[in-house]
Fold:
Amino acid sequence: MNEFLFTQVLSELEDAVGVENCSTKQIDKLTHSVDYFWLSRMWSDRGREMPQADFIVSPKDAKEVSKVLKIANYYKIPVTTWGGGGGTQGGAIPVCGGIVIDTKRMNQIYEINTDGMYIECGAGAIYKHIEWAANEKGYATMHYPSSLTCSTVGGFLAHRGIGVVSTKYGKIDDMVLQMEVVLPNGDIINTSSAPKHAAGPDLNEIFIGSEGTLGIITKAQIRIYAQPEVRRFRGFLFKDMHGAFQAARELLQIFKPSVMRLYDEAETASLIKKIVGVSRPGAFMNVAYEGKKELVDVEEKILLETFKKYGAEDLGSDYGEKWWKEKITFFYPGHMMDLPQMFGTMDTIAPYDKIEKIYWAMKKAIETEFPNIKFIAHFSHWYEWGAMVYDRFICDNPPQDPIEAMKLHNRVWNVGVRAAIANGGVVNDHHGVGIKLGRLMKEQYGPAMQVFEALKKTLDPNGIMNPFKLGL
Amino acid sequence: MEELVISEKAKKQAESCRFCWMCRHLCPIGNATGQERNTARARALGVSMVVRGTYDLSTIADNVYECGVCGACTNNCVTGWDPKIFIQEVKAELALKGLLPEYIKTILETYASTGNAYGAKAPEGYKDTKGDVLFVLGQDAFYRSEASYKGAVALMDKIGASYALNEKANDTGATLNFLVGKTKETEDAAAACAKIMNEYKEVVVYDPVDMRFIAHEWKEWGIEVTAKVVSFNDYVKANMGKLKVAKGKNVYTPQDNYAYARDLDDTETVREILGQVGEVKDMLLNRKEANMAGSLLMDLYMHDVQMQVARDRWFNAAAMDCKVIVTENPAEYELLKATEPEGSRVMTLEEAILENAK
Structure:
C-alpha cells in the first residue's frame, strides 16, 4: 500500500475506533504476529519477523467492528481477528498483513443471569474473568482448558475449544446459548435466542469453529452451572490401553464423570511420572465425578466395580487430586515441551470402534517415518460413543535453519493427520485448523468442502476475512 | 541499531516468558487497556527480539513503562519466572543510552529540580521534627496524598509515639528505581536515605513500596542499614493497645497492596488490625492475588489507564458487595478516591482505626 493510501485508511480506522485504539506501532505489530503456534514461535526464536499487520485496531463493540469491516471491504484489506493469541494453529496470525482486530476491549460482562443460568459478555472477555464473575455469585462456567487464563470467550468459540471437565459438562458449543456476530459486510446479527431448536439449521454452528473466516463473534451468552457439592478423584493404573477403553466405554453408558484422562504408556512414563508421581509401567487414568453427594456415592461404587472388571488397579484419590491441583502446571515454561524442541498436538476424535486403531496408526506412522521423533498421547474428552486422542510429537533437535525446521514440521503434521483421516479420524478435535492444517481440510471433506466454500463466497465475497485459514 | 545489554538472569526470564500466556488474566494494566502489548509475554517477546538484534532498543521503551511492576505475573508463575527483572534492567539501559521516553525525561527533570517526581512542596506548615523513631512517609504520601500524610501522622500522635520527621528521608530511592532501575543515581538516593535512617535505632516506613525497596533492593545492592526498619502495619499492630479502639459495626474490605502481599509476604497484619475495629470482608481477588497496580508515577503519564485500573478494582469490590475499601498505600488510596463510586467509600488504614478509637 502506498503512503498516501495507507494514511487515508489509517485516518478512517482512527475515525472508526478512536485514535488511541488504532495502532501502527512496531511493538503492537510484533505482539500480534506471534501466537502459540510452534512455527511462529520458532520463527521469532530465530530472530525472524513473522508476517505483521499494518494496522491494529481495538474496537469496543459490534458497531465499531462493523465500521472497521466496512472500511476493510471497501479497500479490500485482509482482516484477522485476534483474541488472546493463545491458539496453536496460527489462526490469529495476519499472514497477509492488513488489519488485526483485537477483541479484548470487548470484555464487558453485561449480565449474570442466574434465572437463565448464563453470563452475557463481550467476546473479548478473558474466560477466567467470566469464571470469576460466576464464582462471585456462587456458580461456575465449567470450562477449564489449560488456556483458561490466556484466551477469550470469542477465541474458544472460534476454534471450538474444550476444557478438562468436558465429559460431564460438554464442549464450548454445548456452553453457548446466543451469539452476536458481525458479518464481513458489516451487518450485525444475532443467532437464535436459544439453541437446540428446529427453526432451521443452528446459526451458532456456522460460526463456532469458523476461525474468523465468516464473521467476527462480538458477544455471547455463556452457560453457568451450579458448583458441585462434592468433586472426587480416583486414579487407576491399567495394564494397557485396550482394557481402559473397554472400561471407559462401559462406564459412559451408565453415567458421565467430569474428568476422564487416559495416558498411554509413554506419557505415563514421562509427564505423569514427572508431575503426578506415578512411576510404574502401565496406562494411568484419572477420573473425577461430581455433583450431589448421594449421587456421587452411587457413581463411585459403579466406577470401582466397572474398572475392577477390566483389571484396573485402584490408586486411590491422591494422584487425581494432585493432577487437579497441577493441571495447568504442565503448561508453564520449564514443565513441558518448549523450544528448542519441535512439538505439536495432533488431536483427533472418533467413535470407539476406530479410536484405538487411529492411535496405533498415528503412532506407527510418526515413529516409522521419523525415527528421532517421540510420540506420546492421552485421551481426555469422552462421550458415550467415542473419545478424543491428544497425540503429541516431540523432536528434541529440529533443524536450526528456520526454513528446514518449517519443512520438517509440516511433513510431520502431514504424516500424522493423514494417518488419522485414513483410519476414520478428523483433521482436528479442539485446537482448530488455522494455517497449520488448512491444506488438509479438503483431504478430509472431499466434495463436502464446497459447502464451506459456498458459505465463504457468499458471506465474504472479497475474501478479506482471515485469508488462508481453515483451508478457505 | 542500539543493542540491549542485560544480565544473563534477565535474559533467562525474558526467554522463558516470551511464549507463555498463563498470567495474562492477572495484569491489571492489560485488563485495563485490553492491549496485547500489556502482557508479560508481549514484554518478554519484545525484549527477546531486541536481544536478537531484530529491533532497536527504542522499540520497547514505552512498553516497559506501561508495566506497573506489581508482580501479579510473578506471583502467578508456578515456575518462578519474574518479568520485573528484565523490565527494570531495560529501564536502566534506556537511561544509560539516552533513549528514555520524553515523558520520563520530564519527570526526571522535575525530580532533579524539586527533589520529587511531582514538583510538589512539603505539606503546609510542615517542619522536620525530632524524636526517637524516624517516621518515613515516602514521597507519594508526603507530596501527593494529603489524606495519607495527615492520617498517618494523626495515628502516630494518637499512639503517643516519639517520632521524627525528615523530609529528605522520604526519598528512599524507590521513585528513581521505578523510573530508571538500578543506576548510580538510584543507589545514591538510597544511600543518602540510609545515612539518615542510621542516625536512629528504629525506623517506621509508611509506604509498603518503600518498605519493599528497602527490604529487597537495598539488601541486594549492599546498602547498609543499622537501624531496625519496621513496616507501618507492623508498628501499628504492635501499638494497638495504646489506641483504645472499640470494635464497631463497620465492614471493611482490605485492598491488599502488592508490595505488602507479594514482596513482603504480609497479608494478615491488615486483617488483624481491621478485625479489632470492625468486620473484615474480602473481595474475590485478595491477599497475594490482589489485582491493582496503582502508581502515582504512572498516573503522571498514563492517567486514563490508572483511572481504569482503579475502576476495575471497584468492580471487583462491587461484585462481592464490598462497600468500604481500606488501603495500605497512598497511591492506591488516591486512585481509588478519584474513582470512588456513589455509595462506596475508600479509606486509609489509619482512618479506619481512628474512626473507632476513643
Q: What stands out?
A: The first strand of chain B starts at residue 133 and ends at 136. Strands of chain B lie at 133-136, 163-164, 202-205, 228-231, 251-255, 279-280, 324-327, 345-348.
